[in-house]
Structure formats: C-alpha cells, structure tokens
Amino acid sequence: MKLNKYAYFLIVLLLGFTGLRKFLEKKWKIGFVYLFTAGLLGLGWIYDIGISFCALFRSSNEDKNASHSHSAVDIVSEKYMIHCSFDNKTCERCAKLDGKVFNYKDKIVGINFPPFHEGCRCWTSAVLEGYKHSKKSAKNKQGHSILIPTDMSYDEWKKEFMD
At 58, is the secondary structure helix, strand, or coil? Predict the structure, then answer.
C-alpha cells in the first residue's frame, strides 16, 4: 500500500507503537514485534516518528533517489554495477539487470539505475578497477542465508539453488 507522506506521518505518530505501519508495508514479523512490545518499548516508535517527520520535508525527487544516492566511492568511479536480491521475490526485470555495468554520466533512474519499479530492492555499487569481493549473500530454497561467489549471476544462482 502506497501512502502519501502526511498520512504516513499521522499513522506513525498516532499508531506507530502498534506496528500498523509495518503491517501496511507487509513487514509482518517486525509488525508483530512492535505490536507485542509497544513499538520496541517506545524506542522504535520514536525512531520511526523522526524518520517520517524528516520525510515530510524531503522533495519528491529526493524521495525517488533516497536509497540510491552516491557514496564517496561512487564519486571516484565512473561506472556502477546493478545488483538484485538473490531470493524468490526478485522480479524478472531486476534479475536481467543484475551484474550489468553502466556509466554514471548515462544514469537514468528507472531505466538503468534503481528503483526500477514500486518496491524495487535493487542497489548499485561502484566498479573499481582491480578490486573484487569474493562472496556475496543470497538465499537458498529454504530461505536460509548462504554465501555465493560474487561473479555468480542471478540465473546461475537460481539454477543451482532454487530449481
């Protein structure tokens, strides 16, 4: 469910301790935690109020790119790589873009830079010459976290761990 930022703030302010916002976002586990602990003993509720209050003053352009801003590493790199979540919730569009490299100067949000759609969980990393991680996190068929080689594609992971 997509709420405007004012309704979101009111829900968090008035009913945040019940976990209602978490349930609306389909985050069931943390919703029940909030429900049974009065918003993590009020601390999670206060944090959520602060975050939603700040969102009231963020421009719509910042909202679209908030989770995909440049880090210091991104600024020194001319290229970025798209990553998708390796689990059974990843859509076909995001799976096809996993591992693709683009130039920052050609970045177009929604086309070659996340988010690609509502609820998109893709992210980017800077492409640095000569630097490579050896493992990355993924999920297996049972939903447990596993480590896989960094250069494994979504399709390779799906064939090996999900089929």
Answer: coil
User: What's the token pair of residue 129?
Assistant: 């010459």
Structure tokens at 72: 């210091």
Residue corresponding to tokens 């609306």: 24
Q: How many angstroms separate the CA atoms of 151 and 153, rounded?
A: 6
Q: Position 79: which residue type?
A: K
Question: What stretch of H or E contains 162?
Answer: none
Euclidean distance between CA atoms 6 and 21, whole angstroms: 13
Q: Which helix (H) or strand (E) holds 81?
A: strand 79-83
Residue 43 token pair: 């601390």
152 and 162 Cβ atoms separated by less than 8 Å: no
Cα distance between residue 35 and residue 45, in whole Å:
11
**Residue 54 backbone dihedrals phi, psi, to 5 degrees:** -60, -35
Least confident of 6-15, 33-42, 75-84: 75-84
pLDDT at residue 132, as a whole number: 67
Q: How far apart are CA 56 and CA 4, in angstroms?
A: 9
